[in-house]
Amino acid sequence: MELQQFYYDNKIVKNFLYATLFWGVIGMSVGLLLAFLFIFPNLTDGISWLSFGRLRPLHTNAVIFAFVGNAIFAGVYYSTQRLLKARMYSDILSKVNFWGWQAIIVGAAITLPMGFTSSKEYAELEWPFDIAIAIVWVVFGWNLIATIFKRRQRHLYVAIWFYIATFVTVAVLHIFNSLAIPVGLFKSYSVYAGVQDALVQWWYGHNAVAFFLTTPFLGLMYYFVPKAANRPVYSYKLSIIHFWSLIFIYIWAGPHHLLYSSLPDWAQNLGVAFSVMLLMPSWGGMINGLLTLRGAWDKVKTDPVLKFMVVAITGYGMATFEGPLLSLKNVNAIAHFSDWVIAHVHVGALAWNGFLTFGMVYWLVPRMFKTRLFSVKLANAHFWVGTLGIILYTLPMYVAGFVQASMWKQFNPDGTLVYGNFLETVTEIMPMYWFRAIGGSMYILGMFILLYNVFRTIRSGSDVTDELAEAAALQKISKRRLAGEGFHTWLERKPVQLTILATIAILIGGIIQIVPTLLVKSNIPTITTVKPYTPLELEGRDIYIRESCVSCHSQMIRPFRSEVERYGEYSKAGEYVYDHPFLWGSKRTGPDLMRIGGKYSDNWHFNHMYDPQSTSAGSIMPGYKWLITDEHDRSSTEAKMKAMVKLGVPYTEEEIANAQHSMDVQATKIQENLYNDPDFVATYEADKKLAEENGIDFVEMKDREIVALIAYIQRMGTDIKIKEPETSTSSN
């Protein structure tokens, strides 16, 4: 049989590798800064674009989509060409994929610190970027599938199955979760509201973890672990079971992020059931990965690549054991909203994604540059420093989570909370935050060791952009199954059928969970007293979203005795029907704010935003001084209200026409309330006099951003009559 000569495109792989390392340093550095902001909350005092709320989504997006995303593309482009014995279908598509993805990341790095955010976790980028992501992702999929069709290898290896499932599922998740009504270039409102928005978001959010941080990395595991160990995959039959059961079950598990919330019970219970089932395929994959090293464990002692991969697979196993555990309602009642979840997330991110990426880089770079790794000792040092960093990061966060849950739920014999002040919990876990910062510092130190090692390795090698290869042309055979050929063996040479079946598998769960929640009204009972936000409250809510207050504060009181006693009446689904987007949160660094309206005076909120420690001793919340000084731009209020009308919010034409007058009246009332504080009056008048002396236009307090934010905060949770909790009948 005549062999055909062709060239693998190594340049695109190298580009994605360089981007992986560059964005890895950026994303991890931002994360380390955030860790230190827990210890020194005023470290970036007064700088809006360096505040915790603005940087937190930048960190998550940089690590997930920039660091891990580029690593996925690097690994997929390298392995796909060799598994299919073909160059990528189009060099142009490869370049569009690379430069388009980098442009999106740069855009995120600029706009997120500026406060342009949708607030939806792992999907914070605004609508122009959502469109760009969809286009670039389709380009990637087009290139991948077209390469499959021009392959010289008939059989599609298991890694390719995972790549196909990743492409299809991420496209579906991203498009449906990102549906929004634009108001301006960087402002939009989710088409879903409240409970429905929460379900769609965590259908996306959980499965972004599943199909962006997991399935492509499983494909990389199935390729690079056998290569590094020089052993075949342990069980091909197990890989088949692993693939199909994982992609079918994973898609159902999203609601376990919303247990004890206002989501309908049937949806919560479905999420729990499938989350528990998820343990089996996940551990099947872990076992398949680790047992691939049978007969090669002696190499693990000396080979840093295998060390990284063993810990990565073990981290995958730990995270996928913990996920089903956290979905059990009695465990979730303890862990949710606490630092336990932070520990869980970082076991997956630092060990599974980070270490597998590092192992892949150490394996790829010498081969790409036709040389030896500069220093095995440095790579081993990186492994031990990074491993210790993970331990020092995660273990204290587990402890912090248990401490938080215990303190939040303790009662005195007379029925009062032992720790009625939320800040008592914060003070107790400060040592854990120090350990996290130290662990994060060690992990990023390992990253710099990797950079130096890779740099020296590249310098000692030669740049081979196009790598010569040869293989026989693919011989066409009957479309029918061959004699003795099993169904899956037949399917493995049929990319179209494989893609269709994978798409059906991932759509079933989403359709069954989401469609009834969107269409069956009984899932979202209405409350007649719940009214749309006033124009000023709507504007204040947008400021709350811009500053990512939802990163630290929840707006979901669960039906537990401890939460009802601490915060007030538990949350009802009907309270959120006008919330585009929902703001339930996933972490309580500060207390829940669902019933904060009317609890404190306008002056208290003003002082709290200017200097949180002045009202709450021991608080680790940073000051938001720019809200006090910046003029509030109300030029697009009417456009925002019209967008809300399209989404079903019952604003009348008269209300929209009178929006500016309505805001002025409500803002003036808040300004009058602020005048009740003599210190406020003195400072305000001094600022006014100073402005006049210097010929500067003075902005009235009623026209500043803080007033709009106070309007929203004072509205929170006041739509229903709040009764004193009856502790004898409250659960938990």
From TrEMBL:
Membrane topology annotation: Multi-pass membrane protein
The enzyme's E.C. designation: 7.1.1.9
Domain Cytochrome oxidase subunit I profile as annotated: residue spans: 16-463
KW Membrane (keyword) present: yes
InterPro entries with a match to the protein in the record: Cyt_c-like_dom, Cyt_c-like_dom_sf, Cyt_c_oxase-like_su1_dom, Cyt_c_oxase-like_su1_sf, Cyt_C_Oxase_1, Cyt_c_Oxase_su1_BS, Cyt_c_oxidase_cbb3_su1, Cyt_c_oxidase_monohaem-su/FixO
Keyword Nucleotidyltransferase tagged: no
Membrane-traversing stretches: 16-40, 60-78, 98-116, 128-149, 156-183, 203-224, 236-253, 273-293, 305-321, 341-363, 383-403, 433-455, 498-519
Cofactor(s) needed: Cu(2+); heme b
Domain Cytochrome c intervals: 535-717
Main location: membrane
Keywords (A to Z) from UniProt: Cell membrane, Copper, Electron transport, Heme, Iron, Membrane, Metal-binding, Respiratory chain, Translocase, Transmembrane, Transmembrane helix, Transport
Pfam families (alphabetical): COX1, FixO
Compartments, as annotated in UniProt: Cell membrane
Family matches, as PROSITE patterns: COX1, COX1_CUB, CYTC
PANTHER family linked: CYTOCHROME C OXIDASE SUBUNIT 1, CYTOCHROME C OXIDASE SUBUNIT 1 HOMOLOG, BACTEROID
Protein name according to UniProt: cytochrome-c oxidase
Organism: Salinimicrobium flavum
